[in-house]
Design goal:
heterodimer; A: 287 residues; alpha+beta; six-stranded antiparallel β-barrel; 2 helices; 27% strand; B: 170 residues; mainly alpha; 6 helices; 71% helix
Amino acid sequence: MGGRRNQVIVIIIVQCVILVWLVLDRFGGTNPVRDNVLQVLSPVQYAVQHLLSPLTRVTDRLRSRSVLEDNLRDAEREIVALRNQIVILQEAQLENEILRRELSFLSASPTHRLLSAEVIGHDTSAFLSFLIIDRGAADGVERGMPVLALGALVGRVREVSATSAKVMLVTDPSSSVNGMVQRSRATGVVNGYPGGELYMRYLPQESEVEPGDVVLTSGLGGSFPKRLVIGQVIAVEQSDVSVFKSARLVPAADLRNLEAVMVLLSFSPLDDWQIELSPAEVPDEGS
Amino acid sequence: MRWITISAYLVPPLLALVAIVQSTVAWRIGFFGGMPNLVLLVVIAWTLLRGAREGLMAGLSGGLMLDALSGGPFGAASVGLLLVAMVTGVAEANLSRSVPFLPYVVTTVGTLLYSLVQLAALGLAGHTVLWGIITWYIVLPTLLVNTVYMVPIYMLMGRYRALLGPRPLE
């Protein structure tokens, strides 16, 4: 009974002390007490702080590391998404440029009716230069039709199936196109050559041909329309004993990296004989 | 004894796939002006690993696929690959123990034989064939490229040969 009364007395004393403490604190009277207590506790606090600081540093690091890793992962994801967007935009820009050029070619030659086609394969033989395109007879493609890329001559349709066609490139050794030097109007025959170059042959000795000259289709023979760009002269070969001179050309179209081409539907070749292979057009190996 | 094994049925779809790869990718993975003939290499490897009968089937299947995807005369690739499979089969049966590096020796001989058949067929069909220039600029680089590509192809096919079951008896 006496113990219970003592407990009540202790509680009342503690409450009174807290009350007095609160009143003193309100008027700043506890500062000396607090200071003294802090003076005693601070060295202990310091020691504990220093003892535990490595541990807290490790946990802090772990926490910040996991936060950083999360941030890094987010950033990496964002980088990948942005890179993909850049690729898509670059692709769209390229497509845009190609379409713009095709459009300018179309508006410059309004009589041409063109059909766009995608390149779906190359010839499986290293000895032939053919492309396979995804348009065929069902789209109006016919044998002999010229095929262009960005206004430059690529070749002509050689075989047609319902949904695809094979195009013989101008660089195939069996290809033969009547050409004309744009500057001097000198005419000759442009043959394909192994290695992706072209040879313009039967140029008159007195004709003016220089490296850098542009060669166009002459329209002679009726197998191609006039004024399609074939290529550019890179070297001229002539000898005093020869009747003709010849020129080496690079094709105007980038034939190795073609992705899309245009089939000229509005042109029907007059002379199908040129599409048939003629051994008489075989160029000299030495030339 | 069964004349045709299960693995023989795998030949046409596999060769069709390789021919499509040949048409779409091969011209990008060549070097020194040569382009690997992946179908030819698979036919040679198949013949060496599975014998002449399956090799001939591979040659015919691959040849037909190549002919279908080429602008050249139809049948040139088929005849060429059949001949290569035949020669490879004979070489494998008679020389496999005496000739070291047989796959690479056969690749060299096979590439030359296939090129010869192709060029002869092109010439007969009226295509322009500049023999000297083509040999120097196309055949010789292709020979080198094919030999290089034969290393991974033969290793890969050799590794998975067990999946095809026992080799058919000739």
